[in-house]
Amino acid sequence: MAEEKKHKFESCIKECLDTMYRVALRLTKDHEKAEDLVADSVLSAWKNFTSLKEEKKFKPWILRIITNTYISGYRHKKSYPDPINFGQIAEDENGDDFSLFEALASPFLLWQQNPEKMFVNNLLKQDIIKALESLPDQYRIVVTLCELESLSYQEVAKMLNLPIGTARSRLSRGRSMLQKQLWNWAKEKGYRL
């Protein structure tokens, strides 16, 4: 029985290892810390593997463990952690919410087929990674899980023990902050739309 459990666990881990590392890297922003986070999470998952009722739910389950391990351990290891400001909203200089769509939807751009696509195609991958890493933790975690790992609002809300409305709100605010950051970097680099 123990040998069968071990093989199932190994199989599940092998299927999700790339995703686990990718999420850990987005959370920690450091390759070595990401490896440590994955290792700690695998150990925790092994200890609690019997609590997983359905093997098909392994991926969200292990990603929840990674996220919770990061939140409870790695953030608190900093000597002076930054407190999370849950009321923070991405705002421009005038105090308004920033929207990439509104910035792109000026009359001279309307005749172009897809200005947003042209804009994204002009950005460098490193700029996108830097912009994502610059997001505060509560937004970066939700954006990473929803957008990069294609988890649903419900799965993310359950993973983070949040109401679904809070998960959606954080995703929306995170997207807005990310759009604004990318828009500003593109303007700084001289990209023209």
Automatic annotation (TrEMBL):
Residues 13-78 form the RNA polymerase sigma-70 region domain. Gene3D superfamilies: 1.10.1740.10, Winged helix-like DNA-binding domain superfamily/Winged helix DNA-binding domain. One of its GO terms (molecular function) is sigma factor activity. It comes from the Bacteria. Keywords: Sigma factor, Transcription, Transcription regulation. GO terms for biological process: DNA-templated transcription initiation. Residues 126-178 form the RNA polymerase sigma factor 70 region 4 type domain. NCBIfam families: sigma70-ECF. Belongs to the sigma-70 factor family. ECF subfamily. This is RNA polymerase subunit sigma-24. It comes from Candidatus Daviesbacteria bacterium RIFCSPHIGHO2_12_FULL_37_16.
